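Fold these two proteins, one after the other.
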Amino acid sequence: MNIQTSIAVNFILFQIGWFACVLMAARDNSFIGVVIGLMIVVVHLILNKFRINNLVLMILVTLLGFSWDSVLTHFNVLVFNTGIMLPDLAPSWILVMWILFSTTLNISFRWLYGRYTLAMLLGAIFGPIAYQAGSALGAVEIPDDLMANGLMALGWSLLMPLFIKLAELTEGIEAERSPS
């Protein structure tokens, strides 16, 4: 698969997973979104020849992102009504969305490698937009838009460049394991 096709497939699969998770959560069927999202992750791993660096990146990004969303959940910045695993934690479908997002970092977002300021700016803008879209679709409640958008912009402005750096570093794992 050429690079343009790979980017397009990666982007489309992420969007399908995002909408499946959000729309199913909004309809109180978050389990369906979780299953669809996980199926997309499996497809990603198959298409990308399941490399250890993909798995490491998925784990790191998911732990960081899910922790961030769980902090926002704990303080009622984000209020979820479906897919709740434990009180004060973000729901299961958000966990899957973080796994899905991690699959975009070394493909769709590869062009951001080394562009940390741009990653910071894009995170600050598009992070809150994604949550507002989820709210508009009925998957999450945001009691105080101004405070939530400010906190999400701050969080994403820090997380996005970190995620890009992690993608760069984990890509090196496979290079180090490959024989010269």
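Now the second one:
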Amino acid sequence: MATCIFRSALAPRLHAFWEARRSARRGDAMLKTLRSIDRFFITELKPGQPISRELLARWIESTAHRSAGTRINRFGIMRQFCLYMSYFEPRTRLLHRHCLPRRNRPAPHIYTPQEVRRIMVAARTLGPRGSLRPRVISTVIGFLYATGLRIGEALNLTLADVDLRRRVIEVRRGKFGKSRYVPLSVSTAAEIGAYLRQRRRAGFSTTPDAPVFVNVIGNRHGHPGFVTVYLDILRGLDLRGPTGQRGPRVHDLRHTFAVHRLLRWYRQGVNLGTKLPLLSTYLGHSTVTGTEVYLHATAQLLESAGRRFHSHFAVPPVAKRTTHGEA
């Protein structure tokens, strides 16, 4: 077995572990972390030594300068590798979950309809002049706001996935490899239809496997490139601070979709217990628990909740009695 990728005393095991994950389409995403672990083992692990508690403690300390999200991802991979190694070396110590740092998720920005319109208008002014690029960017933004799809799911759509006659799209191999159908509203289907007609007039491929959202040379629009353009638009509108500061994100369009959907249901007086499983399915979650992170209280939602509570449970004011001497 070739072990040229890794150089530590556990290089063969790291390579075998990576190959197993790669066959399950997970290896490429973890290769960078495995190489980092390999470099740590080169300096800290001698041949024949097991992965000990002390070694793991030093590794945890070596990741202290990383962000919480990066540390959590790396902890997960190290934990999997230790479990894998325990089948070959019983002395291997496992990395327990209580060692994981807590992820401090930034509060999502719930966009207002006015903000979304401003962002889309700004996207239509992008260059190059006369190209399809401004329409691509603005359509993706409106599409994410109207459907709640993940950005990767939207950019991975092909023409075969879009059925405007039935107003439905098929999301193939979304997060965790799950696929689902997502219905479109009449207005969203009309906007996508208008975009596809402009895309066709621009001369891009119309084969079924061609990407819906293309870059300037006709390939699938890249995720990092779209995020960069989107954040530049937000900064130009003063909706986000300079580079390095946290602020509204592309993914917050998904949060906005979920919150606005919940708000509409709440205002309609529907039973949310019967609707939340539908929202979970629509968003591509296997359980309602996965949807809870998207359901954040907003001022509008709290105001609607207060009105409903008052209308159902508030004690009506007692009419003031008048005496015979009063008019």
